[in-house]
Amino acid sequence: MSLDELRTLIARHVDRPTTAVDGLMLSAEYRPTPPRAGVADPVLALVAQGAKRIVLGDRVYDYRAGQYLVVPLDLPVTGHVTEASPERPELGAGLALRPAAIASLLLETDAAPAGRAPSPALAVSDASADLVDAFVRMIRLLDRPADIPVLAPMLEREILWRLLNGEQGTLVRQIGLADSRLTQIGRALRWIRDHYTDVLRVEDLARMSGMSLSPFHRHFRALTAMTPVQYQKQIRLQEARLRLMSSTEDVATVGFAVGYDSASQFSREYRRHFGLPPGRDAARLRTEPPRRAGTAAHLA
């Protein structure tokens, strides 16, 4: 089995709004795309054809056919397709990374512990033949729906096992361990996402993460490439963008709704982040054709 078969399978099934295999995502783009910002859920993204670029804070990650990216946390990223054409579209597959599934696998095996030291939250690796093979067999299930309930969980475990024993094994292990630094910082990220309009007190975030202030700052920055305040700002701006696209609220109302005290500050920071003033950006986005999948799927 090879990338050739993976490309064929993705091209055959990618037009479906969702796949029948829970957690499996497919993507296709027929030309390079402009940067798109969003919050990515934990996901494994494998490129079968073409190339992509992901930006997290000040870090840039390029990955192409035969390479994969692991996103272990809820991270605000900007991504775009850099290599695609109607003749050779970008084709990708993704799998949601479930902490419970990884934890279960760790408990049942002799996999080495992840340790508590943080590592960069994203990294690109070459996909092994075994990993590609497992993805091929998982996507084949879309042609045999009756097999999905029995075989899809087994193939998910195989894919996770390949990751645990690959270059990013340490990072993947941390997703499944309740006491890893990654999981501890993840608690703070989830709180910010759920309370992005609230006043942010870094001392409270450090406490809920089980760390003192200085180590919390260091680990947060190492894993997210930004400070807690910068993370909250990106969450606010992306929520504002969604509101502007889907409602008739004016710019000032949206800015106040996502936590800004000043309409002018909101407009200034929105333009700096997205490249256009809020009103013009929302009008442009409303004219674009609807997209099939969310941020996690777009990474694949």
UniProtKB/TrEMBL annotation:
Gene3D superfamilies tied to this protein: Homeodomain-like (1.10.10.60)
Pfam families hit by this protein: AraC_N (PF06719), HTH_18 (PF12833)
Disordered as annotated region, ranges: 277-300
Start and end residues of each HTH araC/xylS-type domain: 186-284
PROSITE patterns for the chain: HTH_ARAC_FAMILY_1, HTH_ARAC_FAMILY_2
Record's keyword annotation contains Transcription: yes
Keyword Transcription regulation applies: yes
InterPro entries: Homeodomain-like_sf, HTH_AraC, HTH_AraC-typ_CS, Tscrpt_reg_HTH_AraC_N
Keywords: DNA-binding, Transcription, Transcription regulation
Basic and acidic residues bias: start-end ranges: 281-291
UniProt protein name: AraC family transcriptional regulator
Protein species of origin: Streptomyces spinosisporus
